[in-house]
Amino acid sequence: MANYAEIDGNNIVQRVIVVETSPTGEAFLAKIGGTWIQTSYNTSAGIHRLGGTPLRKNYAGIGYQYDPALDAFIPPKPFPSWLLNESTCQWDPPIPCPSEPSVWNEASLSWVLL
To answer: Which residues touch 53 (CB under 8 Å, ≥6 apart)?
Structure first.
């Protein structure tokens, strides 16, 4: 089985489905139409959890953006100040997260300890 993400004209993921890894699965995607890109349930931040080959940096989710130049699925930006790490295609805070449980405060651009 394989996971596929349907993207719209703005490269935003609309849905993710599981289809057979076979000509039948490909025919099914062709029949329902749209633009479909394979994604891997086991890939996150450019690492395959089971030691396999990572696919497109992150498992696609609804609202994620597909970047064809990076060939990656990028989650929605959590805060305006956060920067895209192109190696992982994850969003990094401008200040590293402390080891203690914390939440990001965008107004003060700082971490607040819980």
So the answer is: none
